[in-house]
Amino acid sequence: MPGKKENTKKQEAGKSYVGIIGGPEILELADYREKKEFDTEYGKPSSPLMLGSIAGVDIAAMRRDAIDGGLSPQNIPYLANIKAFESLGVKRIIAISSVATMRSDFVAGDFVFPSHFINMSNGRRDTFFDSGNVLRIGDPKPYCSDIAYWGAKAADNLGYIKYHKESTVIITNGTRRPTLAESRLFAGWGCDVIDYYQYPEIVLAKEKGICYGAVSMVLDYDSIVEELGKSFRAYVDMEGQYKRTISGLKALLSEMLPNIAEDKSCECKSTVYVKDTK
């Protein structure tokens, strides 16, 4: 993949990419033909944008924790990452992450297409508009409904992937696991899975007018499931489960991407923006 440095003010003419951001699984999704490096006013992104295709759809993929996995959730340059996607002209981002489930009816290997989040992370800059003109977003359902719809449709078509929609993800700082008391609280709030990422990615994408949907892979159990009748300690084959889940992820993306690239009927454009010039 030859490197090519891009100015963030330029977009590649004649190309329309679906953005994909995730962890180590990003490197396995496609045979990338090129990578583009960016310098933004918010610093350098976590990694170059790697250009390739899945099922004939052009994608721009980024590993959010750096190519070598060396970035913790707190140190990810979220603003630079989203700015790089915007600079390439990306209009839709699929966020991939591994999550722990808080529910006994969610099992390792399931996929989750969340509709809601609760943010319990802190210390992360989460807006492009923190000085001068302030942009306030009103969006009760922050995730792109089309991405969730086509993800579920793809799973139905494949026939062997179990998934959950209308789910709520709670985002914590990581990498510390929640205590049992915290997990009881989160479960009482109606949370289904725990993630370390997605926020502030989702609100930053919204500020840039980019649709953001998540495809979360259940790979682990939270301690609360022991109180719900399932031992999370009994599951130890993380490496084997990861390989099986990545295989399902590749099939899922191949099935859903052609529809996501073409469908523009989502409600994301109805997000309410209020500018405060004071």
TrEMBL record:
<keyword id="KW-0808">Transferase</keyword>
<dbReference type="GO" id="GO:0019509">
    <property type="term" value="P:L-methionine salvage from methylthioadenosine"/>
</dbReference>
<feature type="domain" description="Nucleoside phosphorylase">
    <location>
        <begin position="18"/>
        <end position="225"/>
    </location>
</feature>
<dbReference type="GO" id="GO:0009116">
    <property type="term" value="P:nucleoside metabolic process"/>
</dbReference>
<dbReference type="GO" id="GO:0005829">
    <property type="term" value="C:cytosol"/>
</dbReference>
<dbReference type="InterPro" id="IPR035994">
    <property type="entry name" value="Nucleoside_phosphorylase_sf"/>
</dbReference>
<dbReference type="InterPro" id="IPR000845">
    <property type="entry name" value="Nucleoside_phosphorylase_d"/>
</dbReference>
<protein>
    <submittedName>
        <fullName>S-methyl-5-thioadenosine phosphorylase</fullName>
    </submittedName>
</protein>
<dbReference type="Pfam" id="PF01048">
    <property type="entry name" value="PNP_UDP_1"/>
</dbReference>
<keyword id="KW-0328">Glycosyltransferase</keyword>
<dbReference type="InterPro" id="IPR010044">
    <property type="entry name" value="MTAP"/>
</dbReference>
<dbReference type="GO" id="GO:0017061">
    <property type="term" value="F:S-methyl-5-thioadenosine phosphorylase activity"/>
</dbReference>
